[in-house]
Structure formats: C-alpha cells, structure tokens
Amino acid sequence: MTMGETTNIVLVGVGGQGILLAGRLICEVALAEGYDVKANEVHGMAQRGGSVIGQIRFGKKVYSPLVKLHSANYLLAMEIIEAVRYADYLAPDGLALINTQRIIPTTVSSGQADYPAEPEALVKETFERFQVADCLKLALEAGDARCTNVVMVGWLSRHLAFKEKTWLTVLERSVKKKFLAINQKAFALGKNII
Amino acid sequence: MEKAIISGNEAFARGAWEAGVNVGAAYPGTPSTEILENLVKYPDVYCQWSPNEKVAVEFAAGASLAGARSIACMKHVGLNVAADPLMTLAYIGVKGGMALIVADDPGMHSSQNEQDTRQYARFAKVPILEPSDSQEAKEFVGLAFKISEEFRTPVIVRSTTRISHSKSVVTLGERTPHKADGYEKNPRIYVPVPVNARRMRIALEERLGKLGELVCHLEQNVIIEGSSELGIITSGIAYQYAAETFPEASFLKLGMSFPFPDELILRFSKMVKRLLVVEELDNFLEEHVRALGICADGRKYIPGIGELNLDILEEARRKLEGRPEPEKKTVKPSPEVPPRPPVFCPGCPHRGVFFEISKLKPVVIGDIGCYSLAVFPPLSAMDMILCMGAGISSAHGVQKAETGQKVVGVVGDSTFFHSGITGLLDIGYNKGKLVIFVLDNRSTAMTGHQDHPGTGRTLTGQPTHEASIEAFARACGIRRVVTVNPYDLQNLRKVIKEEMEADEASVIIARAPCILLEQSRRLGEPVSICRDKCKTCGVCLKLSCPALEKHQKPDGTFTIAVNPVLCRGCELCIQVCPTGAVSKSSGEKGS
C-alpha cells in the first residue's frame, strides 16, 4: 500500500447488517492517515434486507467513487453467498474476507430459488485468495450480534497499513458511548482472526 | 482549514449553511433526503419538512421574496410535483438567493423512473449547476445563491445518486451570515397577470442572454488542457469517470451546464482534433454541441440508459480507439447465487395487510413507499404503481371503468399527506365505490423515518399538531372509515371483506409504527417452530418473512426454521399456521 496507488475495497452483505458504519470507519481512518478518499454508500430501497454493496477508494488522488470490476484489493463479505455474488469486483490478486454467516433470502423460502447446499465449497471454487471466519459468533462473544460489522473491520485492519491508534480513535468517535466497549472488543476479536 | 470526509448531501447542507442560508424546506426522497436532515443540525437556519415538493418550493420562494436565502430539496420526480411553481417563479424571479437542489437517480436505485433534471433547467429557462464531488456540492450552493441574487432567478443544483451518496474530502469553511431584508411590494414584477407576464416573458429571455455570457466566464466552467488529440466535454459525476479513464485528454468541465456556454464550447472544440461528450442520462450537451455545428461523439459511445461507471467508460474508450474486445477476466459470479431483492422487514406492519388482500385477489393499485415491495412473490399483491398519490386516484379510475372488478387502492401515511388527499376528495365528491387502504406506519419509512404532518413532530423534533387521516377522510366525504391493527389478521380479514362488499367508498387505516422506528424494537419474543407439529405446508412462507427460513435437504424435502436474530415477534406466522406448529418461544428450537 503505497501513497501513489489507489486501494479499492468493496463491502457487501445484506441490508441491515451495518455496511454503512463499516464503510465510514474505513473512510475516516484513511482520511486521518492523509489519503484522498472516496466512498459510495447505499440508501433507500436498496436496503430493506436486499443485497447491498459499498465501495471505498483511497490513494494520492481519487476520481471515481465507484470501483471498477476486477480491481478491488479487498472484498469484505458479511454474508457468505454475497461474497460469491460480487466476486467480479475482486482483482486477480485481491483477497476476499468472508463471514460464514448464512442469511437465507425470501426467494429461497418462497421456492423461487435455492440456497447453495455447500456455500463454503462455492467460495473455494470462486476465489483464489480468501479467508473465512464466523464473525457473527465473535460479535456475540463481544456482546451484540449487531457489531459483526466492526468485527469485520477489525479483521480488515490486519491487512491495511494504518496505525491501530487511528482505528481506535475513529471507532471511539463513530459509535455511541454506550456501545463503545462492545465495539472495541469486537474490533479486537476481528483483528485477532487467524 | 479543517478537512472532513462527507457525503454530497452533507456537503450541500454545509454549503448552504456556510453561504448564510436562512430557510430550507423539503419532502424526503432518495437520494436527496439527507440534505435537510443535515441542515437542521446547524444553528440559525429554519428547516422544515413540507407535505410535498410543490409546497416546499412555494414556501422557499416566499422566503426568498422576503429577502431570505432559501433552498428547497427533492429527488428528480419531486421536481415534477414542484414544476408548477418553478415554471412561473422563473418569470416573477426571486430576491434572496434561492436554490433548488434536485437529486437524479440514474440507474433507478430507489426510483420509479430516470429523469435528467437538466431538461427542466432548459424548460423553465433557469440556470443549472452540476457539482462533481462533495467539495463542489458544498461550493456550488453558495455560487447558486450569488447567481440567483444577481440575476433574480431560481437556480437548480443538480445532484445524482453518486454525488449525494458518495463521500469525498471537503475543506470546511465558516458561515457568512445573510439577513433577510424584508418583502418589497412590487406587483408589477411579482404578479404575473397577463399584462405583467408578457413583459416578464421578454425579461426572461434577456436574463437568459446575460446568463449565457456569465456561463462562458465562470471559473467553474474550466478547460483542463491535455492532449490535443481528444477533448472531452463533461459535467457532474461523469467528469470523475472520464478523468480516470482518459487521463491524457483535454477537458471542458462544466460546473454550470445551462444556459449553454456556446463561446466556450466553440473555443474548446478548436483546441482538439476530436470531441467526445460524456454525460449521464440524456445527451443534453451533445445535442447542443452538434446544433452549434461542431462535430462531436457522445451517445454513440456513452449509453443514455442507467448510470455510468469506470467499466462503461473503459468500454467506450476501447470502441473509440477501435481496439478489439478483451478476453474475459478471471472470476465470474456463480449462477448458483439466489437473488436477494429487498423485502418487508421482519415484524413489518405492512406484511399482514398484503397477505390478507392477496387472498381476495382484487386489482391492487399501489403507491410510492416500502409497500411497493408487495409486488414481489410470494405476496404478489400489487398490480400497478404510477406516482405519489395515484394509489388513490388511479384506483378510483379503475373502479369507474365499471368492469365489475374489485379494486383496492393502497397508500402510506406520508404519501397520503403528500398527494393522497385530493384523490380521496375526488372519490368523496364523485361517489367512488372502492376500498382505500392507508398504511399508517407513523413515518416516512422508506427514506429513513422522517416525520410528516401526521406524526405530531416537526423536523426539529418539536411536538406539533398531529393531522388525522380519519378526520381528513371524513372531511372528503367518506362515511366508512375504519381503523385496524395490522397484526390482527382475523379482524383484518373480516374488515377487508366487509368494506369490499360495501356499496360506497371506504377508507381502512392500518395503523402500527414501522418496526424500525426504534432500533431493536421487538413486538414479542422470537417465535419457534415445533418440528413434530410442522407439516411443512409452507403457508407461513407465503408471508415472505426473512426470519422464516426454508432449509433444503439433499433428499428434496425441507424444514422451516425461525432465525431468532431476525424475528421481531409479530406472531403473524402463529396466526396463519394451520397445524399450530408455531408458538411463542418456549425452548423448543426449530433448527
């Protein structure tokens, strides 16, 4: 990660999983570390339990807020099959960090589609470079299922050359005081994956 | 100077505040909603949700004539609603700076159509500014006020989804206060009775001429010199994609795209061998460049449907250079991935209403809001959507065609206040015979829970008069007005049947707050399914609840389980289960 190159991160998951906050944390940290940053968020109808994507780019000078296909350095997937859905974004040498959580879409429950019987196998077929972890379990260990997003941000932080202190400062000003301790724990648990 | 990474919508609010805005009004609509939500956080600005965009623009116009700097914000289709005041406001003009911040939604992320608001600028003969990132979003509001005051014209600031909802780095400034200096009586210029309006009509053209000079000398309309082989004319977010894809090209970047900067376009065209116009949605600039007699490409390479991105621009570059198609790259998404459209949230009060309506199979005329999601299977309970308010008036039209088909109209509470009341008045006045459902979830839910005249709270959180849907319905002449609890399916069924059989119009108000109004709110404990009692008949799955999961087994059979993290305890599934397999949680887990 040198200042001159642009780093592209794609976050995917299911509406309601907290992709907005995850993206905000990464943006703020990149800005605090002196980079030009652009990011894109999803609002409105695109939420409500639908498949969602957020994109972050940082470097010396960033033009487009959208990431080009096959150019993401990191794909952070909060749900396992969502990783596969957006696999196209990952660069050939990019790394996918995948939460093994399964959220069954209503298209499956209503009989219009099938959920893959073995999503882990599908991940293996799809990605060359990937890691999987049960981030929901870690979030519950931290104290709240809703901080799965922060577990994943902690996990990503292992791979980005930002200072731990910057992450923690940004985390502190981004979440409500009441939930800070839980989120700090979630971040630490994520950071220690593998 | 302090730097921050903020969204375009946050930047519009910041820019308005720094430029001394006194008054802001809006009706929520993705992707514009957060502008007012952010502006209200600043001191010394009066902000309000208006019942609809027409009211917001008329309100902002009044404030402007009293000398205040004002903004009205809306999504692209909101400008259709506000088109009436805009068209004549261009004639009578403004006094304090007035900006309409309008957010287009190329790609229809959260909209029913695609519209290019630049066409409205030309139509209404008013200037339009197009920021290309958050910094410009911030600066262009102040610029809009300046132009507005100098030329006495409302100014449109056009955003798009990727401007409004993308974040980029902004240098923050201080506020320059502006004081409203009072309304000056001058009916000659403010009252467009024909004798005055004919004079205003001429003045409007004169103003456009002067703006046409300004637009050629504005520093926001800039030539960025690069190679003379290719020149690109572009504006808004399209500039970012083009700048990244054609780093060596020369650019004419337009911050103000109407009136057209003819002289600047001519000058730029002489600097380069080949011209390409890169714009999102309509080929608004390209057509004009060609009308000037300049040879330019645009639509031939840049699609006019949907939004642009780097991949589309890269493909355009390839075609422009006549290079062969590249080989497809490595990973492809697997076809095995099931679609995941947005759905009603677990615990949503709309679910039961559509479950019951769908069983009776009437023609269902819907409206704009979360409830449009009822169109998807398995509920499949929405047959038409047109625009805000049409859930009432178009349903009335279906009924008056006298085909004998049963028809139900459905609107939400915020939509009802936005443009449903006139439709209901039409039904009362012209003796319609149909059922209108008002799904009152106490919020403008889809756009992120904004207040409206029925919630009893203003944008600033102050308590206020709570407009009554029941009282409005009665005032419109509807005698059958019933309020129901949408979580009580048995009563819902009974009421729908009764009202559909009635010989006059009726309004059923299904009232329960949106489940997301308070984070992590539960209606009850998560339910559970008893394996032994469940015959996997699938009736509960017809509720289309994300908390009810169908787990397939290799032998083709399946089980149904409750996801306790998602379940909000609304207990609709308990009510529909024919075998009594679903119950309030008591230890026996379904999975």
What does this structure look like?
The complex is a heterodimer of chains A (194) and B (591). Chain A is α/β, with parallel strands linked by helices. Helices cover 39% and strands 22% of the residues of chain A. Chain A has a six-stranded mixed sheet. In chain A, helix 5 crosses helix 8. The two termini of chain A are 21 Å apart. Chain B is of the alpha/beta class and 591 residues long. Chain B has four domains: 3-214, 3-Layer(aba) Sandwich (Rossmann fold); 221-321, Rossmann fold (3-Layer(aba) Sandwich); 350-511, Rossmann fold, CATH 3.40.50; 527-584, Alpha-Beta Plaits. In chain B, strands 3-2-4-5-7-6-12 form a seven-stranded mixed sheet. Chain B has a five-stranded parallel sheet with strand order 14-15-16-18-17, sandwiched between helices. In chain B, strand 10 (227-235), helix 11 and strand 11 (249-254) form a beta-alpha-beta unit. Residues 587-591 of chain B have low confidence and may be disordered. Chains A and B meet through helix 1, strand 2, helix 2, helix 3 and helix 4 of A and strand 1, strand 8, helix 11, helix 14 and strand 20 of B. Strand 2 (36-40) of chain A pairs antiparallel with strand 8 (166-171) of chain B.
